[in-house]
Amino acid sequence: MLTDTTADQAFALLLAAARRTAEADAYVRAGKWKAWHPEMLLGKEVSGATLGIVGAGAIGKAVARRAEGFGMRVLLHSRTTPTTLDALLEQSDFVSVHVPLTPQTRHFLRAEHFARMKPGSMLINTARGPVIDQAALIEALKAGRPAFAALDVTDPEPLPPGHPLLQLPNVLIAPHLGSATVQTRLKMAELAADNLLAVLQGRRAAHLVNRQMIGP
Q1: 3-state secondary structure (DSSP) of residue 38
Q2: Known catalytic residue: 157?
Q3: Range of the structural domain that residue 208 is part of
Q4: Which of 43, 96, 161, 173 stands the most exposed, by the fewest C-beta atoms within 10 Å?
């Protein structure tokens, strides 16, 4: 139930990063908008750009469908796709992260990966904060590669006041809103209630966190 709503959030962050939406809003609210200027808040083209998707599960594929609708070239990297991570990073104008958090994917993207990203490229993460080495990302953003990061997730959550990530001008941070639509949150509540009723009635809950521990 989270596939489409999270994919929407990923693409919303991609568009906001590309067209400098948050910066533009702050610019207007600060009273800086005096007149039109041909070089005011120039952004990055999405149509025709290359989107690299790290993690080709349901959400990654849903983001790919949205990207194709915008005329983007899409590269997918996972254990089952031919595109290597290095090739994806070197070719992509935007990189969107969709791997699950496991012991193997903690700090999946590290300093050496950021160094391979194209100049001017942008990173979007709607997966989990720890799949990115956040300390390395901060240093990479200071160096301008990637040029911008749009994050729906961080490590930790929430970030404490004064955190270095909050001091950077080339970062957009949302408070983990991947599932934050009315429809999806209602479905989540209904699913939780169905599981609770099943257990109280002596039936097996349909969705178990500890499924592997107790067997089928």
Answers
A1: coil
A2: yes
A3: 182-214
A4: 161
